[in-house]
Write a structure and sequence with these properties.
This protein is mainly α. It is built from 7 helices and no strands. It has one domain.
Length: 201
């Protein structure tokens, strides 16, 4: 892994904290995360394209109730990292979607188990109120570390797999993935039209 990929994974892990854990300035949205990660890889236009595609493909999934949508920051990070490793963008994006969906599953599991830690931290802060900053810092650092490890390991594993398999894929598989990739914005727009229609009534 190059320092570029390492930096990209670190930035993506920080951006993922913006979803719920810290700040919440929408930096974790695909339209912002994509270009930021594209700057690191030196391909801003690919970052913009992936950011827009990520926004459109996840536009119909809302974080309501127990629903935890796939992470746009993880999707953009995996896609841009794989692209920087030499994987075509139309392949990398679909692995990015898979990585984002798997991350949301992992996040659900972590949130359920984190409740025990919350009870422990609450008791600790109640006993020593001056430890609140240190406790919050530890919680953010552990979340960042989990995000970073997941993104880095996923990119490394999928990168090794795709770089080994891609030369052996037939041209029809490439054509099918290109077609599916170009259909993404139309699929996203198709999900938004009913939503706008309902709001206008």
């Amino acid at each position: 892994m190059t320092p570029e990929i390492f930096s990209l994974c670190a930035l993506a892990a920080i951006l993922e904290l913006d979803t719920t854990y810290a700040v919440q300035l929408t930096f974790s949205r695909g339209i912002i995360a994509g270009p930021l990660l594209g700057l690191i890889t030196g391909d801003l236009m690919a970052g913009v394209q992936i950011g827009v595609f990520t926004e459109l493909i996840f536009a119909d999934v809302n974080p309501l109730g127990g629903i935890l949508p796939p992470s746009a920051a993880v999707c953009c990070a995996v896609t841009m990292a794989l692209h920087a490793l030499g994987v075509e963008l139309y392949f990398a994006f679909f692995f990015g979607i898979i990585g984002a969906a798997l991350f949301s599953t992992l996040e659900k599991f972590m949130r359920k188990n984190r409740f025990k830690w919350l009870v422990f931290w609450e008791q600790k802060i109640t006993q020593k109120p001056n430890t609140v900053n240190r406790t919050v810092g530890f919680a953010l650092a552990s979340s960042f570390l989990m995000n970073f490890i997941y993104i880095f390991v996923f990119v490394w594993l999928i990168g090794q797999l795709t770089l080994a398999l891609l030369p052996h894929l037939p041209l029809k598989a490439h054509d099918a993935c290109k077609f599916a990739f170009m259909a993404v914005p139309w699929i996203g727009l198709a999900t938004l039209i009913p939503a706008f229609r309902l709001k206008s009534r």
